[in-house]
Structure prediction request, 572 residues.
Amino acid sequence: MTYKKREKHVCTYVCRYSYKLGLLLSVVSSSTNIIYCIHHPTGSKLNFTNITMSTVHIHPSRKDDHPSTEYLGLTNEFQMEHAKKVEEVRSVLKEAGEDTLKALLMIDAVQRLGIDYHFHGEIEAVLERLYTKFNMIDCHNDLYELALGFRLLRQEGYYVSADKEGKVQGKISQDIEGLMGLYEASQLSIKGEDILEEMGDFSSQLLNAWNTNDDQSQARIVRNTLGHPHHKSLASFMAKRFISDFRGTERWINVFKELAKMDFNLVKSIHQNEIRQVFKWWKDLGLARELKFARNQPLKWYMWPLAVLPHPSLSEQRVDLTKPISLVYIIDDIFDVHGTLDELNLFTEAVNRWEYEAVEPLPDYMKTCFNALNGITNEISSKIYKDYGWNPIDSLRKSWAILCNAFLVEAKWFSVGHVPKTDEYLKNGIISSGVHVVLGHMFFLLGHGITKRNVDIVDDFPGIISSAATILRLWDDLGSAKDKNQEGHDGSYLDCYMKENPGTSIENARCHVMLSISETWKLLNQQCLPPNPFSSCFTKACLNVARMVPLMYSYDGNQCLPSLEEHMKSLV
Prediction:
């Protein structure tokens, strides 16, 4: 029984949309045929699909706050209209003045629409003003304003006490907006905030009871709130729902929607260019030809940086981050499905030593993989040194060694049929998730706050990284419990927990895992508050990893990822 759950080969959504994507991209590109290998969830290859991609390379400046639009095929008229619309929304935000609720509603709207990156200054000014007088908000007069203000402040790193939330009294069962706001606010609770947790449970119960109301439009909004609270969802994924669900007569919301639609077209063009770069890089790398047993899913791998780093100006970082992500998956496959234990010991030693003498004894397929790993690590290190004056090669090599050590532990468990204790499994599984490798690379690619102190913190697996990794590992293992067609007998945290607690049903075990995920979210929320040594961009990226996890690991009865499929359609 394996104890590193191998993620299913889920690529069927590409079959459905790759042809459409190819047509979409060929409009703005010259043709280069990329062979994309489609895998059945059980691991067997179904066929090969040709996707037309451009070989054009796009490298906007790392230091720009906004992306260049010269290469996007957008007309000057569009660019001028877009810039005009940005300034129109900026003016509307400033007009809110001292009207706290109106300003909060506007901030919430631009964040949910994914256009907040244009207005950081305006948003910060409003929240700073609100922070100084938050305790003066009357929780008896406007529950929604209180809850919304609390959530927006917490989201942006302001610590505000949850005590006011606990003073909510009276007949609020019919205040649907207030209850939804309260439920949304409760998602930012931290350890020890029992009051906020109780208010979250209270509002959830009332909203679930109200969900049978005859007002179908309002009921849909309630369901969306309960199923996809803003703090634990990707704004880019939920933006279309927000546009369709928002009901109001204010003129400003129409102006915001107009900008959001224009922004969507601009950002979509950037994503399409990035996909072309990723596919060309993957084809040139040649691992799909050399390691036919391994996964061949560059589009899916790219979805991680697409979700984690949504700011349009981070185009180059998204493309670069896809590269180590791909190697995490490939090396995972070597350990899970192809390598013998002796070979895996040799490979792990080679990655730990990172010397020619250690690579020489490896079988050819492992040499191919190591050479790719070495090349990518050197390329990214050189780029970071050139841009930021810091060579991260020791940190990156260390992260890969730690990952392979964890993979090897799981391979040894499998080889002797050992079922570890839950704590032992999870401690190792957090590392074998690969999250520390990805976020370590991302820290350096962003270039924010690269100091020896911060580098040492990243190298030592800080809480903000380990919490995101814990959420991924538990979600991953939770999904495996429903998989009935997977090859072999993949183990998971659930298996370990049920063996450690004889007589526990699968339902109770799953409830335990969901509770553990909820508790880990509280830790992650705490770690995002000051004092926090990391930049806002890095902090939010760690949150986005946790937000992306349900999309990546929520398999349906057909072993497909419908949520991820929907997300991909909406973004590319």
Q: What stands out?
A: Confidence is low (pLDDT under 50) at residues 1-71, 481-489.
